# Entry
Amino acid sequence: MNVADKKRLLREMLFARRFEERCYEAYVERKIGGFLHLYPGQEACCHGVLEAARPGQDYVITGYRDHVHAIKCGADPKEVMAELYAKETGSSKGRGGSMHIFAADHHFMGGYALVGGPFPLAAGMAKAIKMKGGEEIAICFLGDAANNQGTFHESLNMAKLWDLPVLYVCENNLYGIGTRIDRSTAVIDQYKRVSGYNIPSAQEDGQDIEKVFKAAKKAVDHVRSGKGPYFLELMTYRYRGHSMSDSNAYRSKKEERMWSERDPIILLRDRLIKAGEITKDDYKAMDTEILDTIENDVIAFAESSPEPRVEELEKYVLAENDPWVYGGGR
Ligand SMILES: Cc1ncc(C[n+]2csc(CCOP(=O)(O)OP(=O)(O)O)c2C)c(N)n1
Ligand SMILES: [Mg+2]
# Structure
């Protein structure tokens, strides 16, 4: 990773942070409704892994904490924000909301509310790639608690049995909603769990983007070279509650402080400042420019976009029953 890449990644991660913080404000203002799960704290996971892959070409899938992954794959942040605002211009035409961001043009295959749902879907995507002889790989990001679902075990078994080109990335933020991992999960180190399926795996610091990138490069090379699946566990932390309805009262101040001192954006920023590659003023200017773009470009687009028409609310919802698709309209 060269200096230009590091500077770009610093900007991308800061953009992701400011985007999510602005979502929080819009939710409090009641501009966004429904469920909202935010990503601050975990930025180096998504950006480090996808930097080592081919975003836009490789097929990416994740759970409900999905805005940043979609944007890194190439989805327009304006359309992602419009989706959160439930507007017709949203990436899922306003019918999906926060948990169902979808950008098929960029091979971002969602955004899923069901914990563990994406594991088999990723294996299926990888099976399709293999059958077509493509060079792409499937990348499935999910949380630590998702690994207790049956789908995890079924999918890993089939993925290895058929040596599918799929990379499973576990963003281990130590909690599933308000339950700490040691209260829900018998094996704490998630990377150890996949040895039962003969899948190679590694655990890495998810707060340091350079380390994530290096570990992900190894993982991606393994999968793309046809050697079958790989499992990468990234140790990370979310800075907010699980969702907007979580008061976040179950974590100690000491623990929160410890992780805030390992903020992925600050770690990279300080490293670049120390190396003389950027100054504190450069960083401030970048932040101001990002905040300005989010306000005047992203939020302005979502605010000014039309809502779906009431008569068309069912449009796009269920393809096989949809006369808009099969019957030429209602
Ligand atoms: C099938 C299913 N069961 C339960 C839930 C409720 N639920 C939502 S999030 C969550 C915890 C998931 O935690 P984790 O996989 O660690 O992801 P994180 O939120 O930490 O990113 C649960 C149990 C759900 N959405 N789907
Ligand atoms: Mg978790």
About this structure: Residues 65, 113-116, 142-146, 173, 175-177, 242 surround thiamine diphosphate (ligand 1) (CB under 6 Å). DSSP finds twelve helices and seven strands in the chain. The chain has a mean pLDDT of 95. The CA atoms of residues 162 and 183 lie 34 Å apart.
